[in-house]
Amino acid sequence: MTFALPSGPLTALENIDLDVKAGEFCAVIGPSGCGKSTLLRLIADVLKPTRGTIAIGGEPPEIARRKHQIGFVFQAPTLLPWRTVRDNIRLPRDVAGSSHQALSPDDLIKLVGLNGFERARPAQLSGGMQQRVAIARALLLKPGVLLMDEPFGALDEITRQRMNAELLRIWVETQTTAVLVTHALAEAVFMADRVVVMSPRPGRIVSVVAVDLPRPRSPAIMKDPQFFRIVNLVRDALFGGDDAALGEP
Amino acid sequence: MLPLAAALGCFAIWELAQRAGLLPVTVPAPTMILRGAAASSRALLFHLGPTIAAAALGYGLAACTTVVLAGLATMLPRVAPGVLGVCIVLHSIPLIALTPLLVLWLGPELMTRAIIAGFACFFPILIGALQGFKAIDPSASELFHVISATPLQRFRLLAFPSALPFLFSGFKIAAPAALLGTIVAEWAGASRGLGLFMLHALFAFQIEQVWASILISSLLAVMAYGLVALLERVVIYWDARAAVAELEDA
Known about the structure:
The complex is a heterodimer of chains A (about 250) and B (about 250).
Chain A: E1 2-5, E2 8-11, E3 25-29, H1 36-43, H2 61-66, E4 70-73, H3 85-96, H4 105-111, H5 127-139, E5 145-149, H6 157-174, E6 177-182, H7 185-191, E7 194-198, E8 205-210, H8 225-239
Parallel strand pairs in A: 3-6, 3-7, 4-5, 5-6
Antiparallel strand pairs in A: 1-2, 7-8
Helix pairs in contact in A: 3-4, 3-5, 4-5, 7-8
Chain B: H1 2-19, H2 30-39, H3 41-75, H4 80-92, H5 95-106, H6 110-134, H7 138-146, H8 151-188, H9 194-203, H10 207-235
Helix pairs in contact in B: 2-10, 3-6, 3-8, 3-9, 4-6, 5-6, 5-8, 6-8, 8-9, 8-10, 9-10
């Protein structure tokens, strides 16, 4: 994937060959600027690749997007401040039309643990709560793929772990294919079936680490020596031998 | 309460200064202005209506055409610089020079005065609208792309609500300008209006009446602003400042 900038072409991603299985939880980790957000946006049809193809369930991203098969959770909650929590969750349905299959907003509000906040406005919610609304919104039309761009990046460690456990619980209920972009090692290993490790710009896939920890996973698993072993595998892939990965791009 | 007390305080100082003989003969005391206003109250009320009507009509015309113009300029970025350029030139022409020409051309009717009022107040509305239609959160823009919204849905559900705070800034500034523009228009040619009353009183050397009309027009301008500000509080019922919340805890 090459961007044409005024200063010259910028190759964000190179030779990405990735196969995500249906129902899998895939984490993508890498240093800042390695193109992981770009990769996510290519899948979501926000960007078009300059070379190569992407297929979601055998279809190009644009078709999948138009069929509302893509749920996207951004780094910032991106809620509409003039809508209530319930109306924010309903937004994809308002756009797609009522003929589309959808979960009930009230069920989703219960699922993400925001009972009682249906009529609240985003300004009245904390950051973590707003992200939960964003997750509910992304799940409304029962998408085949849930894409998440460092959704908990700005939260503190304690809240983050809580949100990770919540997200796993939600994911198990909905059984969507999930791709999570993160820069936190523990989060990637805790959440995913596989962790894709990327190199700094131009982003390439350095390795794919399988996480064969049993499910369902609770935060207690993070004390398991198996967990540490896998985190170290990912850590080695991220930093091992490649000094460039330690510096800022 | 404090602004009101401050205003009364100023009037009190003014009154005392006049009684002490500190002010020239052309600046009467507030009490004398009130007496002059009371003496001409029927005339003032007679002339108030047309001024308010022309100002409101001009304001409404300016608001509608300018918002539509800004919307078109936003959707067709290539014509935007040209449109903005023409508007800057129009805005830079001194109204006092433009007004007699327009009255000569279009006649001294209400509509002419409304058009002049529109000219006087359109520019802040334009800037507010142009800024507003561009002020879409980039993440929200991506969101609307991912959920496959049509351009109309994008405008209705995202662009227009996002623009409202900016639109209202423009509307608020334009409201007093419309009123003052109407008065300038009435100086050039009108059969009725506060500006005409002002002119007659000036030529008849009725100082108190001149001051009364000046103060009334100021009051009207303030009320116009206040009305739009009140409307803003009703229309923008959400906390527009909290577009990006503090990401602290869950």
